[in-house]
Design goal:
With 347 residues, the chain is an alpha/beta fold. It has 11 helices and 13 strands. The structure holds N-carbamoyl-L-aspartate (NCD) and zinc ion (ZN) (2 copies). N-carbamoyl-L-aspartate (NCD) binds at residues 16, 42, 107-108, 137, 219-220, 248, 250, 264-265.
Length: 347
């Protein structure tokens, strides 16, 4: 039984850093262990142009500890008015790594997202031509569709038609939460990848709802039945190149989580690697953790793996803060997996 494992330094292929005081509070939490992250563009207002992505990138770099070596990989927020030339120029200049598709109304700050998918077809065709990946929040917003079915219905109604209409488009199904998502991603060939979050490997919908409502477990897509969590676990622990870590660490101030209309998002940046080591160990898959955190993502994005490493050591339960303070008085609750964490992280 190993008590120490060393991994290539991991990357986070789906991360929310926000802006201002929140950015300053949470950026160091990710930079401590991760080398790179795909930065989500759902600010208010959203990051829709190459110039805005470059300016946001500068704000992120300024918020990081000196010499931490963390590289933010920027994205553009796709709207029905996205300028394909601006997008292509930002991609060619290395300002953006990917583009994010939010169905309008599907999640936090998605009001500027896409309602009519035909309207973005020319932009998607251009992205296929230039090799710019599309990261997708895959849920329909049709009020007639039950919230627990929205991912599976999106695959049939939206994602599959887009992929058939746009051959060569590289797509990442973000934060998959269902066995249907796992099956579709697995069958999609090398142009299709899927990120899996830390929290969806730990919680099912009972964790949110049984014994009192737990707002810090509420995120979108909402956690599903246990059988779906099991499918996600098997996919993450399989080592298959399709599946890689995207934490979707999504900080909201506690007063907006613990609220009559609480925000969606789990904040996992602080303890993600300790949680994942625990989860993979239970699966008997510690030897495949590195593929999930550090190898499969770079391979999908055509980037080199990181030079550095992190070492995870098993010992007495690890202490981590319950909350991260934000200047101005807010706090963000750190994800509590509900079991002790025994794996600590060192360089
Ligand atoms: C994310 C956020 O807060 O920005 N929330 C979430 O529940 N996942 C948005 C998103 O990734 O859908
Ligand atoms: Zn999302
Ligand atoms: Zn997200």
């Amino acid at each position: 039984m190993s008590t120490q494992i060393t991994l290539r330094r991991p990357d986070d292929w789906h991360l929310h850093l926000r802006d201002g005081a929140m950015l300053a509070a949470v950026a160091p939490e990710t930079a401590r262990h991760f080398a790179r992250a795909i930065i989500m563009p759902n600010l208010v207002p959203p990051v829709v142009t190459g110039a805005q992505a470059a300016a946001y990138r500068t704000r992120i770099l300024n918020a990081l500890p000196d010499g931490c070596g963390f590289t933010p990989l920027m994205t553009l927020y796709l709207t029905e008015a996205t300028d394909a030339d601006d997008l292509a120029a930002a991609h060619a200049a290395g300002i953006i790594t990917a583009v994010k598709l939010y169905p309008a109304g599907a999640t936090t700050n998605s009001a500027s997202g896409v309602t009519n998918f035909d309207k973005v077809r020319p932009v998607l065709e251009r992205m296929a031509e230039i090799g710019c990946p599309l990261c997708v929040h895959g849920e329909v917003v049709d009020p007639a569709v039950d919230i627990f079915d929205r991912e599976a219905v999106f695959i049939d109604r939206v994602l599959d038609p887009i992929r058939r209409a746009t051959p060569g488009l590289r797509v990442v199904m973000e934060h998959i939460t269902t066995s249907q998502g796992v099956d579709y991603a697995r069958a999609g060939g090398p142009d299709l990848g899927a990120t899996i979050t830390t929290h969806h490997l730990v919680i099912n919908r009972n964790h949110i709802l049984v014994g009192g409502i737990k707002p810090h477990y509420y995120c979108l897509p909402v956690a599903k039945r246990e059988e779906h969590r099991q499918a996600l676990l098997a996919a993450a622990a399989s080592g298959e190149p399709t599946f890689f870590l995207g934490t979707d660490s999504a900080p909201h101030p506690d007063h907006l989580k613990e609220h009559a209309c609480g925000c969606a998002g789990c904040f996992t940046a602080t303890n993600t690697l300790s949680v994942l080591a625990e989860v993979f160990e239970r699966e008997g898959a510690l030897d495949r953790l590195e593929a999930f955190t550090s190898l499969n993502g770079p391979a999908f994005y055509g980037l080199p793996v990181n030079e550095g490493t992190v070492t995870l050591t098993k010992g007495a339960p690890v202490d981590y803060p319950a909350k991260i303070a934000v200047e101005g008085g807010d706090a963000v609750t750190v994800f509590q997996p509900g079991f002790p964490l025994h794996w600590s992280v060192s360089e």
